[in-house]
Amino acid sequence: MGLVVQKYGGSSVADAEGIKRVAKRIVEAKKNGHQVVAVVSAMGDTTDELIDLAEQVSPIPAGRELDMLLTAGERISMALLAMAIKNLGHSAQSFTGSQAGVITDSVHNKARIIDVTPGRIRDSLDEGNIAIVAGFQGVSQDTKDITTLGRGGSDTTAVALAAALDAEVCEIYTDVDGVFTADPRVVKKARKIDWISFEDMLELASSGSKVLLHRCVEYARRYNIPIHVRSSFSGLPGTWVSSESIEQGDKQVEQAIISGVAHDTSEAKVTVVGVPDKPGEAATIFRTIADAQINLDMIVQNVSAASTGLTDISFTLPKSEGRKALDALEKNKAGIGFDSLRYDDQIGKISLVGAGMKTNPGVTADFFKALSDAGVNIELISTSEIRISVVTRADDVPEAVRAVHTAFGLDSDSDEAVVYGGTGR
Q1: CA 220, CA 164: separation in Å to the nearest integer?
Q2: Angle at 24 (CA atoms; ends 23, 25), nearest 5 degrees
Q3: What Rg value do the Cα atoms of the chain yield, rounded?
Q4: Is 267:351 a contact under the CB 8 Å cutoff?
Q5: Is 185 annotated as a binding residue?
Q6: Is 323 flagged in the annotation as binding?
Q7: 148 is in an annotated binding site
Q8: Residue 174 labeled ligand binder
Q9: 362 is in an annotated binding site
Q10: Which CA distances in Å does 192 have to 148, 167, 182, 188?
Q11: Measured between alpha carbons, how far is 200 from 369 in angstroms, rounded to an integer?
């Protein structure tokens, strides 16, 4: 038996009973002959509560101190889990991200992993211990300050450790039974996917699916680490995410034409109005955004008006970055030469994902017909070989997701999707 990395989300360790349940599952893997590394998130909504507390003290908390505060959440859960495992008669040691060798860049609140040097973890495993690692955190290579990896960073911690330790699999335990064809909180008849490719999972993750973080899947694909998404509340098999399909019984699980429907209401839209339609203008706009360390999603440029030679450029970005983007553009208004800015944070994105759509020409038509029949107006469109995304009004998103899900035959015969815990916050 080889080494297994298991990651447990906040809903799985939300209280003492949850921590004891997780401890039993980890011990069971150890009894089955595996070396086990468990990566844990903060308990329940602890991270959100700490952010709320920080904002009550300071409207704009300093990044370094906010990271110092937020990492306390995982330290609590890792220590309690180690205690629970020891209570079951097995040895366990807990490690912070820096102790585990998670080396990052110096960007606070959304650091990226540069390297993982898990010497202490390997030594602990060789001594027969179960290693418990605080997810979501690391240490800056340059400043030696504590850093956090941003929302969902514990998934990335787990996959990075799995790659560094050459693990057989990285098991991601959450509050649903796997990856579903849509968010089960929105679509009750969503179906569990048995296997999905890294490519389709990357598109779902980047389009708003919250089961796995985009960076986590990207890391797993780069190092070819199979991910098994499972529920910590049941013993059911979950969803395998890998480069190759899996076998179940005597049949091969094939790639579906359509993998699923994702949605995202955490974005905002910025429109730069009256941009001179000449070479270099778009480059100046997006260099300004890049220098502000802001990631963009969809970008659309209108056809310029013949009478004025001006055009509009719209793009979407996280709501949390909206004010920063507007400030950066306003500061460079003279250099860009635009007329005005428009900001809209009442939008939502719906995405249809599937590798089969590139060889099925009717998919696009069916997608837009489903939205039309649901009375959903489209504001922006973006496509790739395996994804179609549209921006609509935020209020239209739930109905749009259900309509598209049904139109492509993704509905289960029963209400299969169960959400065992978590608030979805």
Answers
A1: 11
A2: 90
A3: 23
A4: no
A5: yes
A6: no
A7: no
A8: yes
A9: no
A10: 31, 25, 9, 11
A11: 23
Other beta carbons within 10 Å of 357: 24
Asked if residues 99 and 157 have their Cβ atoms less than 8 Å apart, the reply is no
Q: Is 74 flagged in the annotation as binding?
A: yes
What are the boundaries of each domain within the chain?
Answer: 3-249
143 phi/psi in degrees, rounded to 5: -95, -15
Q: What is the pTM of this model?
A: 0.85
Closest by CA to 225, choosing from 303, 302, 171, is 171
The helix (run of H) or strand (run of E) holding residue 163 is helix 153-164
Report yes or no: 343 and 322 within 8 Å, Cβ to Cβ.
yes
**Torsion over CA: 285, 287, 288, 294 (sign):** positive
CA distance 421 to 215: 24
Looking at the domain that runs over 3-249, which CATH code has it been given?
3.40.1160.10
- Sheet of strand 310-318: strand arrangement: 299-301, 310-318, 267-276, 340-344
Q: Tell me the pLDDT of the chain (425 aa) as tens digits.
A: 699 999 999 989 999 999 999 999 999 999 999 999 999 999 999 999 999 999 999 988 999 999 999 999 999 999 999 999 999 999 999 999 999 999 999 999 989 999 999 999 999 999 999 999 999 999 999 999 999 998 889 999 999 999 999 999 999 998 888 999 999 889 989 999 999 999 999 999 989 888 888 889 999 999 999 999 998 888 888 999 998 765 554 445 555 689 999 999 999 999 999 999 889 999 999 999 999 989 999 998 887 777 788 999 999 999 999 999 999 999 999 999 999 999 999 999 999 999 888 778 789 999 999 999 999 999 999 888 899 999 999 999 999 999 999 999 999 887 666 666 554 43
DSSP state of 266: S
Q: Is 175 annotated as a binding residue?
A: yes
CA–CA separation, 306 and 65 (whole Å): 52
User: Side chain identity at 212, as an amino acid letter?
Assistant: L
86 labeled part of a ligand binding site: no
